[in-house]
Specification:
heterodimer; A: mainly alpha; 0% strand; B: alpha+beta; Thrombin, subunit H; 2 domains; six-stranded antiparallel beta barrel; 2 helices; 12 strands
């Protein structure tokens, strides 16, 4: 498990603020085929994959809380769903330690799907008076496709931003294991 | 050691889930002036200037992406626009003769003092943020209570009504669009020479920025696709409950009528305003019109 050091926490907090501001001030105003990208599940997925379940869950909770707060939405809904997304992505890292280049793409797609469906279910449970329409399904699918396409670049940006504060980046660990023939230089002796 | 780590992880997860549920329940149960709503307003007050700055900085990037999108859709639009032009030409002729009649009637019933838009003290604002989820059709505008904006003020763009101010801060305000599932606008549908029909315009469903429904329209009313829908304003006999909207603001055009003439009739309309391309909006800070 990656320790949540003050520098890492500071970078995660900055990522929440910048991510939400960029989402609301730019990306939400760029409709593509009637829908728009949603950075929140992708950011949470990336942090989960890079930092593990604890940091992923906490980051998801923080992003959700900030999104609901800034947009004057029902508090707690995004927090709850993104908490699950971050925790799940973190567990994938801890249990499987996936190596494939396209892992963030697949996990990003699943994270977006879980977030969209989870958020919709919560809205229905809270009694929002809206039918399940074809427009809603189409919108969810379009966002899913867009998010899948941008999952890799978002993951790369988040990884680059968090790298200086990550003691145990998966890629660095694997590269080290490959070049030294073991999990760490100590294992050679 | 492993057990301790797992226990800690699960404890934190449980704690965060509990926090989310407590927040959800408390927020859902409290009134608009409650503590959590106050915290939310405080956060928005702080973040709004940041959003405003970010919106200005990121505008060139938005414009670049918008240009690509507009270029792709322009070709498809051209055909529709030509058809629309031909239809409008023929309509114009009919309107011109109707206009003459209206002028005569106005002078007869002394309605020459009809309100112009400037009587509603419009305040022009720029859209600085938009909700990313289809469940909340809201935007943030960089005009707030310091500029005279109040809760309930109607918001229009250059084409038609787009929504209502639902929250104000000192330098910004939250606008709930008419495509939000919580929005309802009393309206009149003009059915040519057959008169007008009362109804309430609501969102057809979440995530449908181009589809509204006119509820409570009498099944016997003879509405047709192409009929225009405008705000009703305050009815003469209901001064105690004044409408938030001045009369006559354009809303949209009827596109289709499902189960016409029956109790399950559903009148669909397309809003005149493109809710996905809002840049500048006008907030009517004096919706009741000039002081009498």
């Amino acid at each position: 498990m990656i320790p949540l050091t003050p520098p890492l926490l500071a970078r995660l907090a900055a990522l929440i603020v910048v991510g939400v501001v960029v989402q609301t001030a730019m990306i939400s105003q760029l409709p593509i085929a009637g829908a728009n990208a949603d950075l929140a599940p992708l950011l949470v997925m990336a942090v989960g994959l890079l930092c593990g379940s604890l940091a992923g869950g906490a980051f998801g909770f923080g992003v959700g809380l900030f999104v609901d707060d800034v947009l004057l939405q029902q508090l707690g809904v995004s927090s709850l769903v993104l908490l699950g997304v971050g925790y799940g992505a973190g567990r994938i890292r801890e249990a499987r330690d996936p190596e494939g280049t396209f892992v963030p793409l697949a996990v990003g797609a699943v994270a977006t799907l879980i977030f969209s469906v989870g958020f919709s279910l919560m809205q229905f449970l809270l009694g929002v008076d809206a039918p399940v329409s074809w427009a809603l399904v189409r919108d969810t699918l379009t966002t899913l496709v867009i998010n899948t396409l941008i999952a890799l670049p978002v993951y790369a940006v988040v990884r680059r931003w968090l790298l200086p504060s990550l003691p145990d980046d998966p890629r660095r660990r694997r590269r080290r294991a490959y070049t030294t023939g073991g999990l760490s230089p100590l294992s050679r002796s | 050691m492993y057990d301790k780590t797992v226990r800690r992880r699960r404890a934190v997860l449980g704690l965060l889930v509990a926090c989310s549920l407590i927040l959800l329940t408390a927020y859902f149960g409290e009134s608009g002036g409650g503590m959590l709503h106050g915290v939310q307003r405080g956060t928005s007050e702080i973040v709004s200037p940041i959003q405003d700055g970010a919106s200005r900085v990121l505008k060139p990037v938005r414009d670049l992406f918008g240009w690509f999108g507009d270029t792709l859709s322009a070709k498809g639009d051209l055909k529709d626009v030509r058809a629309e032009r031909d239809r409008l030409r023929s309509e114009l002729l009919a309107e011109q003769s109707a206009e003459r009649e209206v002028q005569q009637l106005r002078s007869m019933v002394e309605l020459d003092g009809a309100l112009g838009l400037k009587d509603y003290a419009p305040e022009t604002g720029r859209v600085i943020a938009q909700s990313p989820t289809v469940w909340y059709a809201t935007i943030r505008v960089n005009k707030g209570s310091d500029d005279g904006v109040r809760k309930g003020n109607p918001v229009i763009n250059e084409e038609a009504l787009i929504g209502t101010v639902t929250e104000t801060f000192s330098g910004s305000s939250q606008v709930t669009l008419i495509t939000d599932t919580t929005s309802h606008v009393s309206a009149l549908a003009f059915s040519g020479r057959r008169g007008s029909v009362f109804g309430v315009v609501s969102a057809a469903s979440a995530g449908s920025p181009n589809d509204l429904v006119l509820e409570f329209a009498a099944p016997s009313a003879r509405l047709n696709p192409g009929d225009r829908v405008v705000t009703r304003g305050t009815a003469e006999d209901s001064d105690r409950l004044p409408s938030l909207f001045p009369p006559g603001l354009a809303i949209g055009e009827i596109t289709r009528i499902d189960n016409a003439g029956t109790d399950t009739q559903e009148v669909h309309l397309r809003p005149f305003a493109d809710m996905q391309k809002l840049n500048f909006v006008r907030i009517l800070t004096r919706p009741e019109g000039p002081a009498k």
